[in-house]
Design goal:
- With 231 residues, this protein is mostly helical.
- It has one domain.
- The chain is built from 10 helices and no strands.
- The longest helix is centred in the N-terminal third of the chain and has 23 residues.
Length: 231
């Protein structure tokens, strides 16, 4: 089954999120602020570590720069961050939240963490091109633990990140036969670099340093497929 790895990944996120949500409820609607702040900062530091692994994969600086700039313009024109934030707000209004924005933050942060990165892209391509799910299965373990930690701090919104995760990875897997021929090692390296920059941006948010509209940069991940051919 071509989507086996993605389905296991989604189940892992839901399972880990439910465990984290149980902890969240057990601690009287969440972990005390002084603990949750330290946990989120710890996750932010770990996110820097994850990003650092692929940050220098690319060798064409111009491709990275153009991808980020053009991706930001496209994302801003489409208002991706605003659209996804509004989806999160509607989900919060329907399913409940603490009214402090943690639902939306959990939804957005978990979505970025699970979707932006080397394992999400390479794992989905391996599943589509070679029916090899090893990378996605390994990613599932990491995401399950992350979902548990996120949900224990930010609550229910983290569980809903399973939806964009499924759409993102299954989309790459199903389209792999079409885009596969264009995904050379060089292109994938540039995509990994751009993805790592977004993870670095996410770490700034988690550390409370700077909140960026990172969803508007999502198109940048795929632009190296085109730009690498010309630069």
């Amino acid at each position: 089954m071509i989507l086996y790895g993605t389905i296991v990944n989604v189940i892992g996120v839901l399972g880990g999120g439910l465990v984290g949500l149980f902890i969240h409820k057990l601690m009287n609607k969440g972990i005390p602020t002084r603990y949750s702040d330290r946990i989120m900062q710890g996750i932010g530091l770990c996110t820097i570590y994850i990003a650092a692994g692929s940050l220098l994969d690319g060798s064409k600086t111009l491709v990275t720069v153009l991808s980020m700039v053009l991706g930001a313009v496209i994302g801003e024109l489409l208002d991706l961050d605003g659209r996804i934030t509004r989806i999160g707000q509607k989900l919060e209004a329907k399913f409940g939240g603490n009214g402090q924005g943690s639902f939306v933050q959990g939804f957005l942060s978990a979505t970025l963490l699970f979707c932006v990165g080397t394992m999400a892209i390479l794992g989905s391509l391996d599943a589509g091109l070679r029916n090899d799910h090893a990378t996605l299965l390994a990613k599932s373990v990491i995401d399950t633990i992350s979902a548990c930690i996120f949900a224990s701090t930010l609550g229910l919104g983290v569980l809903f990140s399973a939806v964009p995760l499924f759409l993102y990875q299954s989309g790459i897997t199903l389209l792999s036969s079409v885009v596969g021929p264009y995904l050379t090692e060089g292109v994938i390296a540039e995509m990994n670099t751009v993805g790592s920059l977004l993870l670095l941006g996410l770490s700034l948010d988690l550390l409370g340093i700077k909140k960026l509209k990172l969803m508007n940069y999502i198109p940048a991940i795929f632009l190296p497929i085109l730009l690498y051919q010309f630069f």
